[in-house]
Amino acid sequence: MRFLEIRFRVKSPAIVTRRRSERGFKSSLDSIPGSTLRGALLSSLFYQGRVSRENLEKERNDPSLICTPAYPVVKDEKSWPSHPFVFRCKATHQLVLNKAGEVIEDLEAGRTPAIPIVCPEGHAALESLHPKLIDSKGNLVAPENFSSICVGINKNRA
Q1: Distance between CA atoms of residues 65 and 49, nearest Å
Q2: Does a cis peptide bond (omega within 30 degrees of 0) precede residue 131?
Q3: Would you give the distance in Å from CA 91 to the centre of its chain?
Q4: Tens of pLDDT, residues 19-51
Q5: 106-142 burial string, b = 16+ CB within 10 Å, else e?
Q6: Dihedral angle over CA of 130, 133, 134, 136, nearest 10
Q7: Is 82:46 a contact under the CB 8 Å cutoff?
Q8: Is the CB of residue 69 less than 8 Å from the CB of residue 32?
Q9: Do 65 and 84 sit in the same domain of this protein?
Q10: Is-contact 113 107, C-beta < 8 A?
Q11: What are the distances in angstroms from CA 30 to CA 15, 72, 136, 145?
Q12: Does residue 28 lie within any of the structural domains?
């Protein structure tokens, strides 16, 4: 098994939305889902003649290419979704980090994990950052996006 990290730049506007519901697409995403990325890679390889139609069928029935979601890299800094134990003080905007590893160790040892309820300055107004995107320094990462609603109407059916 090989693991590859791919960095790419979107050269044209991309529409990346949550799964379609009965009333249309819900909202834009801050990342590219793994299934979307996998489909784009396989399509590109197929159109370049590097993957045959038979191999695509085989890949559809028995996947060998697995992709995780693609999270943005901003100013050469990777980002990923924050875990449930990352908080920020609403008053000072200071990051209050509780490492998930420590929580897991406490739970496995039968101890009650120490989850912060106040920031270092004593403010009790903590905001959970889960599942927002953060970088390695704990800064929020928000890719540029634009949302709009489009409605198509067939004038022959009106």
Answers
A1: 17
A2: yes
A3: 27
A4: 666 666 667 788 889 998 999 899 999 999 999
A5: eeeeeeeeeeeeebeeeeeebeebeebbbbeeeeebe
A6: 110
A7: no
A8: yes
A9: no
A10: yes
A11: 11, 8, 17, 8
A12: yes
Contact status, residue 129 vs residue 88, Cβ threshold 8 Å: yes
Both tokens of 19, joined, read 């799964």
Q: What tokens appear for 30 in the block?
A: 């801050």
Cα Dmax for the chain: 68
Question: What is the three-state SS of the chain?
Answer: CCCCCCCCCCCCCCCCECCEECCEECCECCCECHHHHHHHHHHHHHHCCCCCHHHHHHHHHCCCCCCCCECCEECCEEEEECCCCEEEECCCCCEEECCHHHHHHHHHCCCCCCCCCCCCCCCCCEEECCCCEEECCCCECCCCCCCCCCCCCCCCCC
pLDDT tens digits for range 57-80: 999 999 999 999 999 888 888 998
Task: Give the mean pLDDT of 118-143.
Answer: 88
- Answer for the pair 81, 133: CB distance below 8 angstroms, yes or no: yes
Query: Residue 29: inside a domain, yes or no?
Result: yes
- 96 in a structural domain: yes
Q: Which domain holds residue 129?
A: 77-135
**Residues 92, 130 within the same domain:** yes
pTM confidence score: 0.69
Please state the separation of Cα 94 from the chain's center in Å.
Answer: 23
